[in-house]
Predict the 3D structure of the following.
Amino acid sequence: MPLTLLYPSNFNVIDMNLTHDTTTQEYIELILDIERENRVARVKDIADRRGVSRSSVSIILNHLRQKNLIKHEHYSHVTLTEKGKNLALMLESRHQVLKAFFTNVLGIEETVAEKDACIFEHMISPETLDAISRFLLFIEKCPKVTAQSQILFRQCDKFNDQAVGCDDCELPKNDDPVD
């Protein structure tokens, strides 16, 4: 997916500073996923997906409600507030950027990239995410960067243990001693 489709034109990655703990973030993402499938989330749906008890989910939901991230009345559906939805969409964007970087640039297999993006999206600083986003846009939009450039990167001995090597590169091969 082209990176330009991930963000609206007025979107600023640097504003993606996270102030919520990882558990809060994971529950908000999950609620958004369930809302997309079923229009609303239920405690049972959340508990089943997380592999936890309904009472554990209820405790977390009370915290999310206190943070104004969800609307939830006892024995009722769970829906994201505007604030909760914005957080979920921000996390989704972070995830997409990281997954694109891992797969498109580094050549990491998609299932591994998916798992790693799930971890990194909660920890990466806005500045680093912004730099990765700008790099992805650069390789997508700059006419000097070709698909061949990315293939050469992945084949380079310095960045890939199974690489075939390159006689033109100024970098020493993996088995060459570094000065």
Remarks:
- The CA atoms of residues 48 and 54 lie 8 Å apart.
- Residues 1-16 have pLDDT under 50 and may be disordered.
- The radius of gyration is 21 Å.
- Helices lie at 22-38, 43-50, 54-66, 82-105, 110-120, 126-141, 147-155.
